[in-house]
Amino acid sequence: MKKTIFEITKMDCPSEENLIRMKLDGISSIANLEFDILNRKLTVFHCGEIHQIEKSIIELNLGGKKISTEQTDQTEFKENSNQKKLLWSVLAINFTFFIIEITIGIISKSMGLVADSLDMLADSFVYGISLFAVGGTLIKKKRNPKQN
What we know:
By secondary structure, this protein is of the alpha+beta class.
């Protein structure tokens, strides 16, 4: 795994970060992106050559230039685990409220509570699918680390 640091002189807010993420999204050799907006730096963890990544960053016309590339042993990335933890937390909260509301709705014979509990269940399904999507992209990148 290699770590390449870019200086992006015109990156000063999250909208530029999203623009860069969208541009680099299709490059499967990228394992992780770390943005330091305050210092206008982007760290790219990748396998293989950097040419396609560097070309894509330059095409954005945000003043991007490569500073350094070095080997790294880092394979775990904080950002993805934070997303998964957040999704698991929200899933647990929604599912808990589903159980509470369906139980109280049935006991009190309140169709309003039963209906709201089913809405909570639907939200739980959405968060479950989101977890599957977040995990699926990570698995895909781990299986094909050298494809561009």
